[in-house]
Each structure stands twice: as C-alpha cells, then as structure tokens.
C-alpha cells in the first residue's frame, strides 16, 4: 500500500472491482438485493479473500 493519494491504492481498488464485475456481477441477473448481497459476500469470502482454517 502506498501513501495517501498514491496511485497504488487506486490500482488495488480498481482491480478488486474489475474482478468483482467480471467474475460475479456480469454473469447473472439479480432479482433481489438480498440475493446479490449474499452472493457478493460469498464471493469475497470464498474466492477473493479465502481464510485457511
């Protein structure tokens, strides 16, 4: 991570949201907000940021 206002911080956020959009959002329609919320949580915790148990 860089300092405040550094380009590296922005690049990390852009990469995260690009992956989220490509891997999850664009692949299916969402009927309900809660359905999307649960899918986003599952994607972040299971695919993007896994925790070894």
Structure overview:
Helices cover 62% and strands 0% of the residues. It has one domain. The protein is mostly helical and 53 residues long.
Structure summary:
This protein is an all-alpha fold. Helices cover 62% and strands 0% of the residues.
Secondary-structure map with pairings?
Blueprint: H1 7-23, H2 33-48
- Percent of residues in beta strands: under 5%
The helix content is: 55-70%
The computed structural class is mainly alpha
Largest pleated sheet: none
Count of the separate structural domains: 1
Whole-number average pLDDT? Answer: 81
The CA-CA distance between the termini, in Å, is: 26 Å
Element-level helix/strand string? HH
From the alpha-carbon coordinates, what is the Rg to the nearest angstrom?
14 Å
**Structure summary, number of beta strands:** 0
Shape: globular
Tag the structure with descriptive keywords.
53 residues; globular
């Amino acid at each position: 991570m860089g300092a405040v206002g550094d380009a590296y911080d922005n690049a990390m956020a852009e990469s995260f949201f690009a992956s989220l959009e490509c891997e999850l959002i664009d692949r299916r329609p969402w009927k309900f907000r809660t359905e999307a919320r649960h899918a986003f949580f599952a994607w972040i915790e299971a695919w993007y940021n896994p925790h070894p148990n």
